[in-house]
Amino acid sequence: MHRDVIDGVPVLWEQAPGPLEAALVFGCGARDETFRTLGVTHLVEHLAMSTLPRLHHEHNAMVDLELTQFTATGRPEQIAAYLTLVCQALADLPVERIEQESGVLAAEDGCASHPTVGALLSHRYGIEGLGLAPWNGPGPDRIPLEAVRDVVARFFHAGNAVLVLTGPPPEGLRLPLPAGPRPARGEAQQVRTAHSRWQEDAVPGPGLGLDCDLADQPLQLALAVLQERLRNTARHQHGLSYDVSCASAAAGLGRGERVVHLDAREGEEQRVAVLLWEGALKLAAEGPSEEEVAEEIAAARELFLDPRAVSFELELAASSELFGTPYRPVPERLALLEKVTPEQVHRAFARAMDSALLVVPPGAEVSLLRPDGSPLPEARCTAAGLPADGQQFRPSVKDRLFHPAARRARLVLNDAGVWLRDPDGEVHHIPYREVVGVEIQGPGRVVFGVAPCVIPVLPEMFAGLTPGLRALDAAVPEELRYAASGFRSADN
User: Fold this and answer.
1) What are the C-alpha distances in Å from 468 to residues 12, 392, 394, 484?
2) Taking phi first (over 0 means left), then psi (-120 to 50 degrees means alpha), and beta for anything else, what does residue 373 get?
3) Sequential DSSP letters for 173-184
């Protein structure tokens, strides 16, 4: 892999067949935002792309959890012109188009990851960093202008960019980005570090998340084996699922989340969730066969040596450059992979299962066991009970009369935060110091906490709420409060 520097931007390139492909990669994504500014990086990308004239070659841009990329395929002179235009747009963003582009974002309704992957990340990391993946936030029309300018200044400069090319840099290529320092990125903090558990969420299919060392090759092979076993059982044997996928997300310092997730035929979500968990238990207990490990190593070898993998390798190298993680060339990775034994795969997966989080679609109640034979618990809010002090609010007399479950419901606000006992008797709590956003819905409020937790403070749910609403507004900083989006309702 070759390395150059153009206008302060590292350029990584390797010759590949076909037309020239380029990706200008910035080390920022949704995980670098807050709940209050969620979507701002995507908005910056749209604003920059809106300045381009009509181009007669393939080009695009994308934002995920970690990276923002501006890509193009074409002749060298086309690539050079495109990259220069993108850099010029980022250096002088057309903020007067925010209203139009926020509308486009609402129509696009994109997300930073697959919904099941996002749900697992949010349950592990809360509503911040990686855990922002499944959330929509206040909405694109509620992103403050100062947040747009702040993101551009912090991330969209030469010090946070890498250009990758599937051929030598085009003659005369310029990348007119402002200079800037490489942003510091801390390690994502988990909000729930308990051992294995399951949780219901609004996901299309079940998923299994493991907290792990992302460089652990035996564990990568274990997940590949599990993926193939699930494909055979859930799809080929039972006809319950079409797709079985794996994903990963970096939390910092080499650690992160590895996920395997499946779709499910309507009405069969619970069966698929059981197949996923029991398949994982069996692999943790017995390990893979020699044939399975050999097969996955052979599959990895074919993938790594495919000439079309050059673009993937360049992106991997760019990510390593931006985040300061080691990049191992393909021959080195293959040499290490081919030394992995079935016993190493077995131990790696059994160890990772201690952190396993199973997420299931709504209504998929499961009764499962941990690897040690104890019941797999459902993850629930950890608030012990309602406080004795503070303002207490109950549903209206009419609601309590006609809906017996409403008699258990309580809302409590005091100097420390907000508590809710729902009709099922579960207690939710958001300390004011952990509030990430308060959505204003008419006279009411919806409070979002990092836990993750959402508490409605709505007059239609609780009687005589006006004093509580005043206390809530006084306790939460103004910059965290926002009017409900004109495009859609609040996050669920």
Assistant:
1) 57, 8, 12, 19
2) left
3) ----PPP-PPPP
**CA-CA distance, 282 to 225, in Å (whole number)?**
12
Report which of 70, 69, 93 is spatially closest to residue 83, judged by C-alpha positions.
70
Of 458, 467, 468, which is closest to residue 399 (Cα–Cα)? Answer: 458
Mean pLDDT of the chain: 93
Q: Give the pair of three-digit tokens for residue 477.
A: 């900083």
The CA dihedral of 106, 110, 112, 118, to the nearest 10 degrees, is: 100
Determine how many CB atoms are found less than 10 A away from the CB of residue 479.
Answer: 12
Question: What is the phi/psi pair of residue 211, to 5°?
Answer: -80, 125
pLDDT score at 402:
85
| Mean pLDDT lowest among 128-132, 197-201, 404-408 | 404-408
Q: Which of these ranges, 41-50, 75-84, 191-200, 384-393, has the smallest mean pLDDT?
A: 191-200
- The dihedral through the CA atoms of 283, 284, 287, 293 has a sign that is positive
Whether 268 has a pLDDT exceeding 60, the answer reads yes
Residues 237-260 have a mean pLDDT of: 93
**Starting at the edge strand that comes first in sequence, how are the strands of the sheet with 207-213 ordered?**
197-200, 357-360, 207-213, 255-262, 244-252
The tens digit of pLDDT for each residue in 4-35 reads 999 999 999 999 999 999 999 999 999 999 99
- Its pTM stands at 0.93
Go through 459-469 and write b for each residue having 16 or more CB atoms within 10 A of its CB, e for each that does not.
bebbeebeebb
Nearest of 322, 287, 318, 257 to residue 122 by alpha carbon: 257
Q: Mean pLDDT lowest for which of 155-164, 247-256, 346-355? A: 247-256
Residue 492 confidence (pLDDT) above 50: no
- ∠ at Cα 106 (101, 107), nearest 5°? 95
CA dist 176 and 228 (Å) reads 46
Whether residue 331 has pLDDT greater than 60: yes
Whether 139 and 487 have beta carbons less than 8 Å apart is answered as yes
Q: Which of 315, 308, 313 is nearest to 333 (CA)?
A: 313
Query: In the prediction, which pLDDT does 338 show?
Result: 93
What's the CA gap between 347 and 343, in Å, rounded? Answer: 6
Residues 277/449/114/317 CA torsion (nearest 10 deg): -100
Q: Residue 217: what residue type?
A: Q
Say how many C-beta atoms besides its own lie within 10 A of residue 46's C-beta.
21
Edge-to-edge strand ranges of the sheet holding 444-449: 453-457, 444-449, 435-441, 481-483
Six-digit token string for 39? 């979507």
Mapped onto helix, strand or coil, the DSSP state of residue 103 is: helix
Tell me which residue of 184, 181, 325 sits closest to 256, measured CA to CA. 325
